[in-house]
Amino acid sequence: MPSHKQDPPQIIDIKESLLNREAEIELLQQTFTEIGGELDLNRVFKIAAERARALVSAETLLIPVIDPEGDTYSYRAGAGDNVDEVIGETLSLDYGLCGWVFRHNRPWWRGILDDLSDAERTQWEKEAGTVILVPLRGKKGLLGGISCINKIGADEFSRRDFNLLKMFASIVSVAIENAMAVQKMEESHYLQENYRHQLSMLNKQLIESNKELERLALYDPLTLLPNRSLFRDRLTRAIAQACDDNTSVALLLLDLDKFKNVNDVLGHEKGDRLLKAISKRLLEYVSAEETLGRLGGDEFVLVLQQSEADVILRAHELLSSLEVPFLIDGAKMIVSGSIGVAIYPQHGRDVSELLRHADSAMYLAKDSKKGVQLYSLEDDKSSLGHLTMIADLHKALEQKEFQLHYQPQIQCSTGRVLSVEALGRWSRPALGEISPDVFIHELEQSGLIDRYTFWLIETALAQAIAWHEKGCDVTISVNISPQDLINPEFCLLLDRVVSHNGKHLIFEITESMFLSEHEGITKVLDYIRDLGIGLSIDDFGTGYSSLSRLKKMPVSELKIDKSFICDMEKNKDDELIVKSIIDLAHNLSLVVVAEGVENEAVSRYLTELGCDILQGYYISKPLPADMCEQFLLAR
Ligand code: C2E
Ligand code: MG
Ligand code: MG
Fold first, then answer.
1. 447-499: per-residue pLDDT in tens?
2. Half-sphere exposure of 514 (CA within 13 A, CB side)
């Protein structure tokens, strides 16, 4: 009931305090309804800070929260003056009033001063009254606190403010703890998702690197063809299948001729590009079900499931495919090869046996210059395998088993023999004559060629001097392997062997050597010329160079390859090529030699075209030294 009279001051105080009480209770109720349903931790903090500030009329309200490690606390939320400067700041538990409250797990207010030691009291006395700070206690321990700084409109916070705040904190802390738990759950869910994502990324990477490893383990990185392992595996399966079906499997082993020289002379980079181009070319002749692999170096293998006759046809087809020149950096490259064929089951019952026999057939193909050779037991007398050949070559060098045959070359205009070409001969114990194409290739492959070449130069020079002393003045042409020229000791050794007798010798060097970008080649060629040795370009027309390029080289002679000469009677193109080579060579003041002259008609025709020197079976086959001497004396 409203009073008519003015209430006395005490009553007014009581009335005011009851009204305040009502407002406070309403504020608390509002806070709890709002916070109770809130699971977003940031929102919970925000509401708590604003309501607590209103509840005790603080200028500034801050909520410090103890960090998970437990030795620091951070200001998570706040309301009122200057809070933005403080929120987010992290402090040590040793520091400030908050630290004191957390360490002692006791609220701070003015009334506590009496409990403090003298030192502490001096330290904190200033703050008493202007700050109240109550802990937020969760079920599992201390969470943080609520700190009120400076009472609006009064000097100090009252005991009532303090009690209200304690009550507020005890209820709010439950909401904070719940929201923290929810956030933790969300975080761990997020982490889980994140882990799952990372795991799937890792898995993907693992699959990729597994694929890469598989590629490295099974495919040749240069040509991307199956390597030796994958090829062995495929052949093993094909053999098993053929065994079940009672059919056959053929293994073709293709070896490129003189490929090592391409690498040595033109450099590995060009060699690699040529190999890539070759594998691409070969793939055009191989179906997707068939396996074309690279065993390494210049050796390719092909597994076929066809009849013997078809397999031989396919082998010839592969060789013909290589006849079209390859273009590397604008330079034409001519490639040839030899193929050995071995067939399961008749030529071998497992991969190793088939490979061995295809290898020996391949050497026969090279030796006979047939291109393709099917394995046969009779031909294989004691396996022409190249490992046994290397052992035999070592022995042959030590025991001087090599011989030289000499093929006379005649001057067209006079019919006189001015020179002879020294050609290596090797009769392999138990196997008979091995073609120089084969053993020179093996000497080059096994790094023995320099020893052989110095034997060759010494022997040829001694022969030339001996003939000179008998009145036969002929120079002797010797074939020098490209690898000799890149041997750093070549010049030094040459000087020792030849000294001042260079005029008796001509070095035949294949055309490709003159294209070499190998450092120092020109120096070596100059050195050879300075020793008085003539330089001749052998097998001209099959290589990659042009006449204009040769202009800069210290050469004196050019030998047109026999492949053009042999056929020039029948083949108009060859005839035209020979004619223009002769003209151009003369323009460059080079002596022109035609090799492979097999009959009188060709001999006559070449003379008419102005060729300077002829060499070939028509004049004489290569002869042992004594027979060649008779030939020379008779002339
Ligand atoms: P090349 O230097 O072009 O030698 C010419 C080849 O043609 C010789 O084969 C010779 O016998 C052959 N030939 C000569 N006249 C005729 C003919 O009228 N018709 C036919 N169809 N062929 C004829 P050979 O002796 O089998 O030598 C083959 C190749 O082996 C040589 O080709 C040469 O590149 C290499 N070579 C031979 N001896 C040596 C050597 O001591 N050192 C090196 N590095 N290579 C050698
Ligand atoms: Mg030659
Ligand atoms: Mg030649």
1. 899 999 999 999 999 999 999 999 999 999 999 998 898 888 999 999 999 98
2. 26
pLDDT in tens, 59-118: 999 999 999 888 999 999 999 988 999 999 999 998 888 888 998 889 998 888 888 888
Question: Could you tell me if the CB of 539 is within 6 A of ligand 1?
Answer: yes
Tell me: cis bond preceding 345? Omega within 30 of 0 counts: yes
Spatial distance between the Cα atoms of 95 and 74, rounded to a whole number of angstroms = 12
Residue whose entry in the numeric block shows the structure tokens 């001694």? 462
Assess whether the C-beta atom of 595 lies below 6 angstroms from ligand 1.
yes
CATH for 228-383?
Answer: 3.30.70.270
pLDDT at 173: 86
562 lines ligand 1 (CB under 6 A): yes
Please report, rounded to a whole number, the percentage of residues in the chain having pLDDT higher than 70.
94
Could you say which DSSP state residue 350 is in?
S
Task: Name the residue among 561, 551, 563, 557 with its Cα closest to residue 533.
Answer: 557
Structure tokens at 377: 């037991």
Any idea which fold 408-425+452-634 has?
A: TIM Barrel (3.20.20)
Whole-angstrom distance, CA of residue 123 vs CA of residue 503:
111
SS3 for 247? coil
Expressed in angstroms and rounded, the spacing between residue 529 Cα and the centre of ligand 1 is: 23
What residue segments make up the domains of the chain, in order of their start?
A: 18-217, 228-383, 408-425+452-634
- The pair of three-digit structure tokens given for residue 98, joined into one six-digit string: 């908050």
If phi > 0 it is left, if psi is from -120 to 50 it is alpha, else beta; for residue 206 that is: alpha
Distance CA 293, CA 311 (A): 17
- Asked, colleague to colleague, whether 18-217 and 228-383 share their fold, the answer is no
Residue position matching structure tokens 């022997």: 459
495 Cα: distance to centroid of ligand 1 (angstroms) = 26
Q: Tell me the C-alpha distance between 539 and 552, whole Å.
A: 19
Residue 273 to residue 278: CA distance in whole angstroms:
9
CATH fold label, 18-217: Beta-Lactamase (3.30.450)
Torsion sign, CA atoms 212, 216, 217, 223:
positive
Please provide the average confidence, as pLDDT, over all residues in the chain: 88
Nearest listed ligand to the Cα of residue 543? 3
